[in-house]
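A quick aside before the break. I want you to see a complete sequence-to-structure record at least once, exactly as it would be stored in a machine-readable document. Don't worry about memorizing anything.
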Amino acid sequence: MLGLQVEDLGTTPESWFGLVNRYYVSGLRQDLAAHLNGKTEQFESRYRIRHRDGTYRWVLCRGRATRGVDGHALQIAGTQTDVTRLIDVEERLIHDAFHDRLTGLPNRNSFLANLDRAVEISRQNSHYRFAVLFLDLDGFKAINDSLGHLVGDQLLASVSSRLRGCHRPGDLLARFGGDEFVLLLDDLGDFSVAASIAERVQQELGSPFLLEGHEVTTRASVGIVLSNTKFDSAEDLLRNADIAMYSAKAKGKGQVRFFTPDMYERTLKSWNLDNDLQNALQRGEFLVHYQPLVSLSTGRISGAEALVRWKRSNGEIVSPAEFIPRAEESNLILDIGEWVLRTACFQARQWSQPEMPLLTMSVNLSGRQLSRVDFLDIVLRTLADTGLSPSQLELELTETILMDSSRAAKAALDGLSREGIKLSIDDFGTGYSSLGYLRKFAFDTLKLDQTFVTDVHSDRNAAALTRGLIALAHDLNLRVTAEGVEETEQLRFLAAHGCDTVQGYLACRPVCAEEFTKLLFRQTALLPSFVPASLLEARGSERSPHRPSSEPRPAPGERARLTLVS
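That is the input. The structure line, written in tokens, reads:
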């Protein structure tokens, strides 16, 4: 087992101990003494012992002493087993349990154990300072998806190599999982060291990586938590570093943020919001309000836009700008969108009475809804179930949705148009304002975003753009609806230049179905009275400051220009 002859062993215990690795001699002596003194029933010790070739082997020794009548040990006999391979396997398992196989760095378990130690030291020593840096690679998923997992793995290994040169001796770098890395900065004299190391990380990652013939660039979003922040456990610290990292990622690529208590409060509120959102539909917490679309030829309601509202069980009203993006991320928007569509169509059918004006119901679409292969079937089934005429439904899409739309989405829009359902391009002017969309899709209405409308009466550029868009839409046989009309001067300008419909607070805020029904029964104009622009010109062109006095009157058959009078 050891390659020795009998004469090589010697005749004394010391000659045997001389072969044992010096780090294990003390433990071997203690184990042996404990048995010889009667403290243990059997001698057992595991240690490393030198082979004849100079290498060391792991052995397990077991034995039992023969004792005299007085209980003293007379001699001991036993066995020795070579357990080198077993120990190698155990050490490998232990190593693997605490190290990442791809990068060779300590893993999550190892990092948490060291972080627990740092937390315990800080509790015992108020002068001890440490920090945790949480790093997440920016754009790693896109690299992985486009160049493949092999390149992704090579990038992680290369990043870990560069990160090893960023920290001080004694600090711990670990791969936390995926494209996340963590740094434990131990025994800091000054917290400013954390910012310096974060800056060094960004510098190291700033140079491209050459992987499989590809030049790959990446940066890291870094969240930093200091040991002087309030925490109860290592998990709390790690959570706070993670929160700071996501805050950095929200600012853009390659950003660094230090954790502050208000970040946690916002995250907790966000989590509660997401949790409540999961069950809001089942609890009946969603409402639909309706904002009137007002015709500029009559000043009366010609349609309604359905707007979803969320009133939580605690009475809090959550802004759509806050919960709609979260519903998009979780795919809840599919259920919410279908519910809004059905509710709005049912309500529009209720309003389709002989004594009421015929209305168009506008419903906003999500890109996720449009990407469903059965979306057209859902819309047609909703119309059939509620009894609403297809010509009374108008679906609104933003430019962003159109940019991301697939062939299936294009087919769905074409199908909707063939069924007589109107289509509207919403918020036109806030995206790329691509005229190609107006040609590619069969739209019925163009909705001018509020950003165009706000300054039409005071900004020549805004006025020129708005006039041009209205004229362009009309040349394409599209109706024009202006959003966010809040001032009389805005309304006067839009009427003077042929806008068809307006919506905004000047006419009416979004209201519940009951209040909207009252507005319909009154059948009164929500806007002031109108007279043709030609009559206004006779009184002076100052009423319409953006229209040249030499502008000719509309020819017979053209769309009438209408202007407000005070």
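Two observations worth writing down. The first helix runs from residue 6 to 9. The two ends are 110 Å apart (CA to CA). We'll return to this after the break.
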